[in-house]
Amino acid sequence: MAKAIDHVINSAAKMLYMSAGTIPCSMVFRGPNGAASGVGISFMCCHVSNPSAAQHSQCFASWYGHCPGLKVVAPYSAEDAKGLLKACALRLSSHMSQSAIRDGNPVVMLENEILYGQAFPMSDAAMKNDFLIPIGKAKTERVGQHVTIVAFSRMVKLALEAAEVLAAEGISAEVINLRSIRPLDVPAIVESVKKTNHIVTVEEGWHMYGIGAEIAAAIMECTTPIRVWVLTLQPMRLTTWTPPSSA
Fold first, then answer.
1. In the β-sheet with 236-238, what is the strand arrangement from edge to edge?
2. I need a labelling partner for 113 at 20 to 30 A (CA). Which of 80, 138, 197, 221 fits?
3. Do 5-117 and 139-238 fold alike per CATH?
4. Considering the entire predicted model, what is its pTM?
């Protein structure tokens, strides 16, 4: 993903704009993202077990999500992967708007390598050929009342596990699977926080300028009085450990 970033951001993402809408760039870029097995996993660790982890185990969500002209998705489950990929790559009928080909701009699909070997249940609806997941729509994986946990990709699994632990302590956590990084489903997050009054974001990216920071800013900028009357504590961001530049 790092080697391709010049072509994705400097060419593909800007082609439709630079051509005044005459040259679409309807492409889907799939690539590994986040921690990977076999190259050292540095997520939330105080040391790196394999030096190559510094070059391979990193999250590109905020890198690509920062760039106008791109749509960025990050599936967690098998249903996410199938539904999002079809929404990205297939030419849809005229009454459906979520299509990378009809949109004219490229899509970056960030896939966690560790999830490749994991099995997920598939609903009957997801097994159908016409199953699609709209880009830009988050999914509530678990309903809760006391705290909202927002995550994407492999971190959804950890969020769901954390929710189970919290439930044993009498804390009801709502888990939101973003699925889409850009566009971000801010209304879904806001509606959940209105109910729970607390929010925790979880990501494999670094702390500064991350997806959690964008979510926190979006909540503060929300036109509804959520920041004053609803959010009782400041947003909490859980991210990967950030090593010093001299490491």
1. 139-142, 173-177, 147-151, 199-202, 236-238
2. 138
3. yes
4. 0.85
